[in-house]
Amino acid sequence: MPFLIETFDKPNHQALRLEVRQAHLEYLDANVNLLLACGAKLSDDGETASGGIYLVHLNSREEAERFIEADPFHQAALFAEVKIVRWRQAYLNQKNTL
Fold first, then answer.
1. Where does the YCII-related domain lie (predicted)?
2. Alpha carbon distance, N-terminus to C-terminus of the chain
């Protein structure tokens, strides 16, 4: 079942984000089979990330929690807040999936 995980970086932690980014990307590559979509939330000018959105296919909220807790960004204490909600996929790649 799909889950949406939204993360919110702590203020003024861009340096930490950049420091841990490569490990984060390697973690995502290692778990690509779980990702429906994933990416950073950016400032309006597209220059500064302030968190991310993960759409993941996992069997339970507990698995979603374990997934985000294993992310190097989470382990580096980058996030001020993490929200996890069940998500119903209706459209993907411009196609109705219902």
1. 1-88
2. 13
Tokens read off for 26:
């390697």
* Radius of gyration in angstroms for the set of CA atoms belonging to the chain, rounded to a whole number: 14
As a whole number of angstroms, the distance between CA 81 and CA 84 comes to 10
pTM of the entire predicted model: 0.91
Give a yes or no: residue 95 inside a domain.
no
pLDDT above 90 coverage of the chain, percent: 86
pLDDT (tens digit, 9 = 90+) per residue, 35-49?
999 999 999 999 899
Rounded to an integer, the average pLDDT of 49-70 is 97
Q: In which domain, by residue range, is 41 found? A: 2-89
Would 97 be classed as within a structural domain? no
Cβ(54)–Cβ(68) below 8 Å: yes
Does a structural domain hold residue 12? yes
